[in-house]
C-alpha cells in the first residue's frame, strides 16, 4: 500500500506521463508505447485517483470527460471577432490577390500556404498554460463556449509546456477524420438513425452535443492555424505556429513558404491531387501573408483580412455511363428519379447511384439512354448528376422520358402548378405512402408509440402483419416474437438486422395498448389527413367534438372554423368521402381508440340561456374567447362551430370574418356584441 505522499507523487508522475503519451499519439502521431501499455498506465492512474480523489490534478488525462452534462453553452463575446476568408475559385483570382497585396505593401511578400480544413472553426484560449475557453464561431461576434466538449478532443492539450505567453488565443478547425465518420455513419445506419451527409456536418453536430461523454466517442480531431494575443512570441505567422507546436499544440505539418505565384499554384496542384490520400477532408487551400507587420499594413475589410485568401477546390467530378433511371416513391408520394450508374470512384467512395432530382432537370440535362454522365458530390449524401458528356453519346439514342404512372401502385402521376416534383395522388393505398402514414400514426406527436420506432413499423408492414393502423391493435405476442428481417442500406454496403426478442415484443404491445388513451385531437392528427397538421387537428377536434360530427361537417361549416381555409376544408371533405377511410376509422374505433374530445362538462350554474346556441367569432376586449365559451355553458347555452339556420346568436368580436357576418345576416341569426352578451348573462 502506498503512503499518501507516495500516492500523490505517483498520481502526478502518471498524469504527466500519460499526457505525454497522448501528445505523442494524437498530436505527433508517433506513439512510443503500445495501446496495451497505455491502457495499463491509465488504469493505474484511475485506481489511484479513486483511492485519493484529493490529489486528482485539473489536467489529469482522466478528466477529459467531465461527469456533468453540460446543460447549455455559455454565450461568450469573442475577444477578437472571428472573421472569415475571401474565397477564390481560379488562379487568376489569386494573381489579383497577389497584385493587391504588392500594391499596398510596395515590397515582396512571403506567403504561407496551408490546407483549408473542412470542419468547424474553434477559438481556444489558454491562460497560464491552461485551456480555459473554447468558443465556436457563432455569429463571429459571439460564440458558444464548448469547452467541456473540446476537452474530450485528445489532440487539444489541456495544459501546455515551455515558454507560452500568460494568455493567448489560438484558432483552428475541429474536424472528423473520414474513418471516424464512416464508422459513425455505419453505427447510425445500424441503429436506424439518420446519417450525417459529410464529416463536416458530423463534426459540427458532435461539437454541439450536450453530453461530453458522447462527444468523446466521436473521435474528433483539431488542427490549429491562427494565433492571436497581445504578446505574440514572434514577428510572423509561421514562427508563431512553430512556437505553438513547441508548447504541445497540434499544428498542421502541411505548410509551405511561397515567394511566387508559381510556388502557390504548385502547392494548389499538389493538394488538389493529394487530398484523396489525406485521412480528412479539405475543401481548398489558404494563402496568408506571413509577416505580422505586413498583415497590419494590409488590414481588414468588414468581413475578412486583406492579408489572406482561400482558394476553393472545384468539386470532384467524374464521368460514368448511365445504366438506367429508377423512380423512387417517397413516403409523401413525391417521385424522385435516380440514375443507376456504372460504379465509379468519387472523393473516396464508390458511387453507383446519383440523384436526377425531377423531370425538369432531366429535360435540362437533355439526358439520353446510355449517356455518359458527369457526377459530383454536393453537400448531400447522394451525389448528383451535373451534366452529360455529349461527345460520348451514341447515335440514335432515345431521350429519357419521365414516367407517367406510379411504379409502386400504377396510379397516374400528377404535378401541381409551381411544383417541380411529380406526385402519386393515391395517398392512402400506395405502399410507400401507406408506410409513411403508419410512421406518422405512431409518431411522437400523434399516437406516440415509440416502441415501434427505428424501422420496426416498416418491418411489420413488410411482413404483411400491419396493412393499416387498425391492424396494430390486433397484433399478438406470438406474431411479434422472433420476427426478423435484414435491411440493406441504400449504398448496399451496410446491413441492419431487426429482430424482436421477448422484451421488444412486450414493449411494442404495451406501447400500442397505452396509445388507446391518446386524446381525440392527437388521434385526429394521427389519421394523417392531408394539411391537417397538429394545430389544425386541435382546432377541428375542438370545434366539432367528435369524429362523426367532423365527418358530417359541410364545407361551409368547416371553413367557418377559425384558421380553417378552403384547402383544408376540401381535404377533410375528400378524406371522409373515401369509404376506405371511413371503414378504417370504424375498425380503429372498435379497439377503443378515442374519437371524441373529453369534454370537461361545464356545470350549469344558472340556466339563463336555455339551450340557445352560440357561435363566437373575432377578438374580444373584456374576456378571452375560451372564457366566453365557458360562460355560455355555465349559463346553459351551447357552443357551436359554424353559423347555420339553427344558430341562435352570433357573438361578434373585433375583426371577425365578413363571410360569417354576411351568412348570419342572411339566415337571420341574431348578432350580439360582448357587451350585450354580458348584459344577458350577468346583468351588466
Ligand atoms: S485562417 C482571419 N486557416 O475556413 C481568418 N482558416 O472562411 C482566419 N479554415 O473561418 C482563418 N482551414 O474556419 C484559416 N488553414 C486555415 C483554415 C481556415 C480552414 C476555415 C476557418 C475559416 C474559414 C474561412
Protein topology:
Elements: H1 4-27, H2 35-51, E1 74-77, E2 87-88, H3 91-105, E3 111-117, E4 120-127, E5 130-136, E6 142-145, H4 147-150, E7 167-175, H5 178-190, H6 199-207, H7 212-216, E8 221-228, H8 237-246, E9 256-258, H9 261-274, E10 282-289, H10 292-298, E11 308-312, E12 317-329, E13 334-346, E14 349-355, H11 359-365, E15 372-376, E16 384-388, E17 422-423, H12 431-442, H13 456-462, H14 469-472, H15 477-480, E18 484-488, E19 495-499, H16 502-514, H17 520-526, H18 534-544, H19 547-552, H20 555-559, H21 566-577, H22 579-589, E20 613-617, H23 625-634, E21 638-639, E22 649-652, H24 658-667, E23 670-672, H25 674-682
Parallel strand pairs: 2-11, 20-21, 20-22, 22-23
Antiparallel strand pairs: 1-6, 3-9, 3-10, 4-5, 4-7, 7-8, 10-11, 12-13, 12-15, 13-14, 13-17, 15-16, 18-19
Helix pairs in contact: 1-2, 17-18
This protein binds 2-(butylsulfanyl)adenosine.
2-(butylsulfanyl)adenosine (IVH) is lined by residues 83-85, 114, 116-117, 121, 173, 225-226, 286, 305, 308, 310.
Characterise the protein shown here.
- With 684 residues, the protein is of the alpha+beta class.
- The chain folds into 6 domains: 62 residues, Helix hairpin bin (Helix Hairpins, Orthogonal Bundle); 236 residues, D-amino Acid Aminotransferase, Chain A, domain 1, CATH 3.30.470; 107 residues, OB fold (Dihydrolipoamide Acetyltransferase, E2P) (Beta Barrel), CATH 2.40.50.140; 87 residues, 5' to 3' exonuclease, C-terminal subdomain (DNA polymerase, domain 1, Orthogonal Bundle), CATH 1.10.150.20; 70 residues, DNA polymerase, domain 1 (Orthogonal Bundle); 70 residues, Rossmann fold (3-Layer(aba) Sandwich), CATH 3.40.50.
- It is built from 25 helices and 23 strands.
- Strands 12, 13, 14, 15, 16 and 17 form a 6-stranded antiparallel sheet that branches. Strands 2-11-10-3-9 form a 5-stranded mixed sheet.
- Helix 1 runs antiparallel to helix 2 and helix 17 packs across helix 18.
- The mean pLDDT is 89.
- Bound molecules: 2-(butylsulfanyl)adenosine.
- 2-(butylsulfanyl)adenosine (IVH) binds next to strand 3, strand 8 and strand 11.
